Amino acid sequence: MKILVLNSGSSTQKSCLYEVSATPSEDPPIPLWEGIVEWYGSYADVRIKDFAGAHPTNRIKVGSRREATEQLLSQLWTGPVPAIRKPAEIDIVGHRIVHGGGEYEAPTLVTPAVKAAIDRMSAFAPLHNPAGLDGIEIVEQMFGGVPQVAVFDTAFHTHMPEEAAIYPGPYEWVAQGIRRYGFHGINHQYCAGRAAKLLGRDLLSLKLVTCHLGNGCSLAAIHNGHSVDTTMGFTPLEGLMMGTRSGSIDPAILTYLMRRNHFTPDQIDDLLNKESGLLGISGISGDMRQTIAAMNDGNPRAKLAFEIFVHRLTSLIGSMVAVLGGVDALVFTAGIGENSPDVRAAACASFEFLGAKLDRAKNAQLPCDADISTPGSLVRILIIRAQEDWAIARECWRLASSGVSKSSQSK
Predict the structure, then answer these.
(1) Of the residues 153, 229, 287, 369, which is catalytic?
(2) What is this structure's pTM?
């Protein structure tokens, strides 16, 4: 079975092709083909890796995100070393969809009703849901009637305790669907299972804090395999400082700006989602790599951006540990979590009082799926590669194997 996965992020479009012939392993296989588009204004970098290896990055001029995604997917059969001969070889396509609201607690076959729900939820995930919906429509155009599956980032957090999920506003908000949903659930759930395997422990016995740190950032407190708290809420804006997102701020700032500067809702939305975070403070970039490079060159605003990021990260890790009543392991994942020794070292330094001791030599080596704590550390510190694509592929296989996709296609 050939499974294509589209992972639409706020600044990237990733895609992977897997071939699964039996029950999928928990261990992620190497994809047959993978591609990524990263946007930089009016141009984009396209990177392709297949069984022949990585191909040179291709910088293209793009009129829209949709156009770049179409170019990326066409490389499957028109690229230097085609992974398939024609689009009809794809058996099923899976999509990461950020916001499913309270309607979708499990992976779901895409139907017109599901597309409409994803569109409605775009108001709460404006950087993500429209991109996911674009991906679904592009696949419809390029691959015909292939079954498509929506896998929701909110699903893992659906059963958080009410005291964690409900905001302390008017109780009427609950009936209106205003509550904390949480995001990055696909990867938080994957990392929890992977951590248990790396530690040789039963997942149901562990207290974990998983730190998904990328352009978007969130933490999850995981107890007995379940999400009991997380830092993102009604939208992916709450919580940690991020690449271009502010994270949590005093909401009165917004009413102040609306009254004093006559900001419109759209201006507020852009301010918080696109002009804040690392970019807003450093004035340089929303990319942690560029922020650290500027900090090391003596840029004071870049240094402040790094320090705010770490302060908020450690503060919220502490709150997750308190909710759990202790912690067995800290897990770092996603772009910053996997690739920034500086961020990991700065964050872990604050938890030495809990017995979390980082092996600085291991930390500097950028290992993948590894324990980077010292032998005597009371809290294990892990780096786990984000594998949302493989987690989505496994869900596609499960639905296809159950006959759901075939029966739906025949309707």
Answers:
(1) 153
(2) 0.89
